[in-house]
Amino acid sequence: MTKTTDAATPSRRKFLKGGAIAAGTAVAGTVAMPNVSRAQTVKMKFQSTWPSKDIFHEYAADFSKKVNDMAGGRLELELLAAGAVVPAFQLIDAVSTGVLDGGHGVSAYWFGKNKAFSLFGTGPALGMNADQMLGWIRFGGGRELYDELINNIAKLNVVGFPYGPMGCQPLGWFKKEITGPDDLKNIKYRTVGLSADMFKGLGTNVTILPGGEIVPAIDKGLIDGAEFNNPSSDKLLGFPDVAKFMMVQSFHQPNECFEILFNKGKFDALPKELQSLIRGAVEASSSELSWKAMDRYSKDLEAIKAAGVKVVKTPDSVLKAQLVSWDKVVEAQSADPFFKKVVESQKAWAKRIVGFDQEYTANPKIAFDHIFKKA
Fold first, then answer.
1. Of 81, 93, 94, which Cα lies nearest the Cα of 49?
2. 3-class secondary structure, 100
3. Which of 237, 227, 231, 233 has the alpha carbon at shortest distance from 303?
4. What gap in Å lies between CA 261 and CA 101, rounded to an integer?
5. Dihedral of the CA atoms 50, 149, 111, 312 (nearest 10)?
6. Residue spans in the chain of domains classed CATH 3.40.190.170
7. What backbone torsions phi and psi does residue 134 show, to the nearest 5 degrees?
8. What is the CA radius of gyration of the chain?
9. What is the mean pLDDT of residues 186-194?
10. β-bridge pairing 188-190 and 102-105
């Protein structure tokens, strides 16, 4: 017994000593891990196409923060405002060439490269809202067409993520009320994307400007009217200071969305889990953005009214004229087989999805009027 115990004692001591060393090593490893993680942090320059004071830049900041928080130090997006590295309309080229690692904008800004870019955010009115359009991108074949446009047709070294539904955009800001289609003839007006072609069909002289240049152009009399996007952006950019008529409702941009871009080589070089993290952050940010917009846009429209701006519904005659002009734009641009393929895909989705919604969902206006507009 004693002999057995004596024989076992050195072995037991050796085991315990080894366990203590192993435990100590594990603790040391745990302490050292953050240093290793920090040493492996991937930093990316990420520029938006928006002025720093615009709510759109805030959306870009929300996405960047979400990625940074979720990555736990392994990936860090450094957000810059429009113009910090390149002008807004040069963003996608800067991302493609690696001058920037990523960015935040809208597809319509690349309209000059191929008009089909506008179909992924500022396309013709087909009855869809922006959320339904994003549904097409996710489940209706739009994603594949988007990738084909970026990589095969435009030949850009970019990975893009359409996200963040925008509500129907107003006709815009004017110094006098728009009472019919004739009021849009020969005026100088700012818009972007295919919307420019649609307004040209109405006899409008179109100027394409990035967000930060619009209000100064109205103030100096270089343009007579302009649209940008929503009450919050318009208020922050100073539209109420230079025009006193805000015409709401329009078919020029009924279902736009935002776009997040990364240099493809740099994105593909990330570990798979960080690529998945970015995709998850896109989805989460898309939902958060839409809810934030509900809150802020409604409040800021009331603030615009309180500032003495006349908020006027765009006449039906203008809306109908827009639809007729859209028909002509789509017909002309459909000479390009890829453009036609995208539009036909969108039409098939809109017919099914919007048709389902109209058949299946009760008109919310009936309930709203019952509660809030009682005689």
1. 81
2. coil
3. 231
4. 8
5. -70
6. 40-165+256-294
7. -65, -30
8. 27
9. 92
10. unpaired
How far is residue 285's CA from residue 86's CA, in Å, rounded to a whole number? 25
Architecture of domain 172-255+308-372: 3-Layer(aba) Sandwich (3.40)
Q: How far apart are CA 375 and CA 370, in angstroms?
A: 9
DSSP code of 168?
Answer: P
Backbone angles phi, psi at 173, to 5 degrees: -115, 135
Phi first, then psi, for residue 89 (nearest 5°) are -75, -5
Alpha-carbon gap, residue 196 to 71, rounded angstroms: 40
Question: How does pLDDT run across 127-181, given as a tens digit for each residue?
Answer: 999 999 999 999 999 999 999 999 999 999 999 999 999 988 999 999 999 999 9
Q: Which amino acid is at 317?
A: S
Pairing of strands 172-174, 245-248: antiparallel
CA distance 360 to 129: 16
CA–CA separation, 347 and 326 (whole Å):
14
Which amino acid is present at 13?
R
- Domain 40-165+256-294 of CATH type 3.40.50.2000: no
User: DSSP string of 162-211?
Assistant: EEEE-PPPP-EEESS---SGGGGTT-EEE--THHHHHHHTTT-EEE---G
